Amino acid sequence: MKQVEGKTEFDAIIIGSGPNGLSAAIALQQAGLSVLILEAKDSIGGGLRSAELTLPGFVHDICSAIHPLAAGSPFFNSLPLEQHGLEFIYPEVAAAHPFDDGTAAALSGSVEDTADCLGIDRENYVRLLKPLVKSWPFIVKDVLGPLHFPKHPIDMAAFGLNATRSASSLVGKFKTKEARGLWAGMAAHSMQPLSNLGTSAFGLVLMATGHLKGWPVPRGGSKVIANALASYFLSMGGKIETGVHVRSMADIPASPVVLFDLTPKQILEIAGERFSFIYSWQLKRYRYGMGVFKIDWALDGPIPFTAPECRKAGTVHLGNTFEEIAKGEEMTNAGKIPERPFVLLAQQSLFDSLRAPEGKHTAWAYCHVPNGSEKDMTNAIENQVERFAPGFKDLILAKHTMNTREIEAYNPNYIGGDINGGVIDISQLFTRPALRSSPYRTSARGIYICSSSTPPGGGVHGMCGYNAAKQALKDIFNIKITL
Hints:
By secondary structure, the chain is of the alpha/beta class. 33% of the residues lie in helices and 16% in strands. It has helices spanning 19-30, 68-71, 111-115, 122-143, 153-163, 167-170, 177-187, 199-212, 223-235, 264-271, 277-284, 322-333, 378-388, 404-410, 463-477; strands at residues 3-4, 7-8, 12-15, 35-39, 50-51, 60-61, 88-89, 93-98, 104-107, 217-218, 239-242, 257-260, 291-299, 313-318, 343-346, 361-369, 396-402, 447-449. The strands form 5 sheets. The chain has a 7-stranded mixed sheet, sandwiched between helices. Strands 11-4-3-12-18 form a 5-stranded parallel sheet, with helices on one face. A two-stranded antiparallel ribbon has the order 1-2. A hairpin with a 5-residue loop joins strand 8 and strand 9. The radius of gyration is 22 Å and the shape is globular. It starts with a strand and ends in a 6-residue tail after the last helix.
């Protein structure tokens, strides 16, 4: 890269173009810097890619599919992404949770709307969620940021009292199978045993966001989110180069700031010689969590769920009772394969006509597996769908599967199939990837981490990238930004 009048051509360089890399680049470009994104793949997006994986005309999301955190992201909501092609579609039911008796619980509409399907747990649900939904707009930036003194300490403390608990503990607030099952499906997004401290945070955040923003799908595929972010970045004068595989710091043009949208394992390989012994030691000890096994289907019709709520939902959690889900997640964490895994399923084509030919449909699903497992979970997942939707298997026209090895090959950030960029347990929640005054700084001046291996962790929200850019701007350029 040439230098211009004694300085580098770019003020900052981002390695990786996932939602956090794109967000970091936008925040830096907005602050007046010149920014370059380097992406190893031939297309941008990281986990935000879509492709015809099964048959022509069937558009599948390769990783991320449903986007409550994108809809509720403070940073994304500050950007004119609609002007750059992003349109969210909101299913009538955000998420449904069916049971073996043909009934289902459903997250939809207001807190009261959801509570109405929970029988004697109606008031218990309202007492738990109503205060959080009311305070969420004020505390969301604190929740989705690094550990710091919050702007609304009382509201944040109220959230923290429940969020730091295990899902297995908090489920004691509920008596009915409907409320307990719905809670299990939400908390299991943590990809941890539900007995772990802090797993309640995942359920609470997803439920609050669902009541306030819904769980939308982007029209045309998840790639549209990445394309909108990139389009806005380019419109401000930013630059993106794809097909550039960075293997060492020598592959990166000279620049005052480099931000890595990568996990600790890759960053050590690229820049490890720049780091202190203690920082390198911390990164080497960073822990990755469960992996996933994923299936995409091309279908001859909509999934024939027995429960009507499931036929109106963008997302369906398949796992029956709290006890069944908790047992399965515990087994997976211990390196075992449950016969009936918890399955997260999305049916985007019910709401987005661009996903499949007329009269046909797509479906997307994954289950958790031990990190690095190459076990084929196709039958187990399809049996779970058939369990709650008899006749499903007869609709399958084609399928595409990915085990943890293939998922990591698709996106090297998914170490062992871990789509969260590292386990997000209580010890790695705010200190990921290392215990430092700022989790985004490395021990080398000018080198930062902006991936989901930093707070607040996994999910398509861009806040890891924004927070890292905010730190870099303050440290290197003495520029302060705020949302």
